[in-house]
Specification:
elongated; single chain; mainly beta; 5-stranded parallel sheet
Length: 197
């Protein structure tokens, strides 16, 4: 099936749709309803979503590559093993969102409310989480290598096993966060301590 290219979809009702390996490139989706839709293996390249609704949708092994998602709603949506490399979420509603693995490397989540989300095992390498609220989020075993976390809130967050290399730890509010011993050494070093073996 050939991908749809340079098309614009406005106020389309695709609720309950079942898509398998459909592809879109440089398309625009405005106020499209994908509520309770099931998308499997679908690919969106350089697409723009504005006020699209993914309520209770299930996305499995889908890819949103260098897409912009503005004021989109993902209430109770499920994303399993999806790839969102280089995409940007702007003023989106991402709670509650159910995630099962995936690659969110280089994703922009600036200022997003991610409170209480289970992001365990998620690849967030070099993601932009500036000013994001990750209070009570589960980041165990997540890859946060070189992620930008300036002004982010990680209060009461679970971090054991998370990769934190290259993260400027002094820029993050970690009050009450749970960390492992290796991370404790990173934090101590970030604040100028010398850690003896």
């Amino acid at each position: 099936m050939q991908p749809a290219v340079d098309q614009r979809f406005v106020a389309e009702d695709w609720a309950l749709a079942e898509w398998y390996k459909v592809e879109y490139e440089r398309c625009e989706f405005v106020e499209v309803d994908l509520g309770e839709a099931h998308l499997t293996g679908c690919v969106f390249r350089d697409c723009v979503f504005t006020a699209a609704r993914f309520n209770a949708a299930t996305l499995t092994r889908c890819a949103f590559l260098h897409c912009t998602l503005r004021r989109c709603v993902f209430w109770d949506a499920t994303m399993a093993d999806c790839k969102l490399t280089g995409s940007a979420f702007l003023e989106c509603e991402l709670r509650p969102l159910h995630l099962a693995g995936g690659d969110w490397g280089f994703v922009a989540l600036r200022g997003q409310n991610l409170t209480g989300l289970d992001l365990s095992g998620l690849r967030l390498r070099e993601a932009d989480l500036t000013d994001a609220d990750l209070t009570r989020a589960d980041l165990r075993r997540a890859d946060l290598g070189f992620a930008r976390l300036a002004g982010a809130t990680l209060r009461d967050t679970d971090l054991p096993g998370a990769a934190l290399e290259g993260v400027r730890l002094r820029e993050v509010d970690l009050t009450g966060a749970r960390i492992d011993l290796a991370q404790a050494v990173l934090f101590a070093t970030a604040y100028g301590a010398r850690v003896d073996p």
